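Quick one: structure for this chain?
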Amino acid sequence: MPEMLTANSFILGLLEFPVPLPSSFAGIDLSDFPTLTGAFAFGPVAGVTIELEKTPCRCCQSPWEGSEKGRIFAMEAKDYLYFIVHDIHTTIVATVDDAGLPATCAIDMMDSDGNSLYFLTAKGKSFYERLKKKRYLSLTGIKGKDTMSCTAVSVRGKVRELGAEKGYRAIREKSIYVRDISR
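Got it. Here's what it folds into:
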């Protein structure tokens, strides 16, 4: 019987709808009802078992489908990079200046290959100079309307210059956006 409640809990977890309350983040997770029913009918061990069994089921979902909980566990690094480039695009990038102070700027992420992010900058800009000297950055991208309904992704790592010809040409071939602004 607890297995039946686990299956019902998983199916109900796929249904999401807002609650008509003043706050935009409120909602009801219907998948908790079979868990509670199992706990009251068969004891607390059954309730915990149902909850533990439904979580791996959610983790097996595609990262782009199903409930928010399923997406969190199923994504790999390449999925996050794709999300940054195609869904967020403009990120806030932090570097360190000559005085050791943080400096930020908005940078568009132009491409990813599953392991790396690619963006453009120009020689002579202070952002370019900071990257050449320190070689590390941290970036954050946010997608959503407000704090409780947005998704934020942060990445930090070492940067390397691809060169004007190789890097720019590859990004320009893939990006209509870059072709439009470079005319």
